[in-house]
């Protein structure tokens, strides 16, 4: 299994789930270059993933899913990252939707909700999980262009109560699978609230009246993710398609193991898979191509020896950070506190993505002028891995937050609401 290059001690059940992932990789790999060139998500991949049962990878079996966990998701996004990082990234964001089902149920079990709130919270959470298990693609829309100093993600989209439901207005600047997913799982702030207690979650159908797609995203990073974002103009969402219980959002976040919803390291696995692939291709090219005068492999030159030595070091750095993070987030019983796991991730995310980018940069140098093509493996990986330098937060912000945690005993909040005057 390709995923075993990252998760080296898979159980028998994990291997069975990983086989499903391996079965689709040839199709992803064959479509990757065209998808990148055109900047479009291959819509056939939705059926491919659905037919393989992979849209329910991390959904418990009792809800109809495959019963996988974070180890499965990391192995899957890593393996897909070796074939088509864009698809791997979009798939990652679909799977983050599961947190909106799993964490509320854990919060119920922990006694965090009142008796009258439990039926509403449970119904929404189970709807998230059963839809995923049934093969529904969910695009997880939280990020917006509005920024505040207090948090990484600021929610300015509003939800106003009307008879039978809610009216949503706002704009989401980042969310893979725009125009592809069946539903946009969308965060918005309830009227009358100005803290994270007012953040609610809504199922927004792709074709709902008032939903439109933003201008095409001509991004530097993974170009085939359908990452245009959406605009919501007076979009009506029925009550039973919303989790609008005040305080539900921060309560569910308290149940995550480390990073805010407990699955963020799987995005770093995408980048690591991409880095491994470009490393493998660069090494294959350098060892098979020979010098015309000596017949020796190009890889034997001192310059290439230095480049591959550094690329190997950077790649192993990414693996070490990622594997340790995976251990601290999945070990039973836990051996680190939630804050320690959080702190580890704030350092680890930047360390992994910076290291992976350096691997692509080394591959570009090793390939020389003839390999410096937009369609070549090095050129595409360099662009793909550039996204990791900024997505969610750059390495510098992670280090700053860790410094504040260490010196001020103050953890950074991930989500905040925008001031009322923003709009």
From TrEMBL:
Signal peptide: none
UniProt domain Acyl-CoA dehydrogenase/oxidase N-terminal: residue ranges: 30-99
Catalytic activity line of the entry: dibenzothiophene + 2 FMNH2 + 2 O2 = dibenzothiophene 5,5-dioxide + 2 FMN + 2 H2O + 2 H(+); dibenzothiophene + FMNH2 + O2 = dibenzothiophene 5-oxide + FMN + H2O + H(+); dibenzothiophene 5-oxide + FMNH2 + O2 = dibenzothiophene 5,5-dioxide + FMN + H2O + H(+)
Localization in the cell: Cytoplasm
Entry keywords, A to Z: Flavoprotein, FMN, Monooxygenase, Nucleotide-binding, Oxidoreductase
Gene3D superfamilies for this protein: Acyl-CoA dehydrogenase/oxidase, N-terminal domain, Butyryl-CoA Dehydrogenase, subunit A, domain 2, Butyryl-CoA Dehydrogenase, subunit A, domain 3
One GO MF term attached to the UniProt entry: oxidoreductase activity
The protein's Enzyme Commission number: 1.14.14.21
Pfam families tied to this protein: Acyl-CoA_dh_2 (PF08028), Acyl-CoA_dh_M (PF02770), Acyl-CoA_dh_N (PF02771)
PANTHER family (alphabetical): ACYL-COA DEHYDROGENASE, ISOVALERYL-COA DEHYDROGENASE, MITOCHONDRIAL-RELATED
Similarity section: Belongs to the DszC flavin monooxygenase family.
Protein name as catalogued: Dibenzothiophene monooxygenase
Species, as recorded: Nocardia aurea
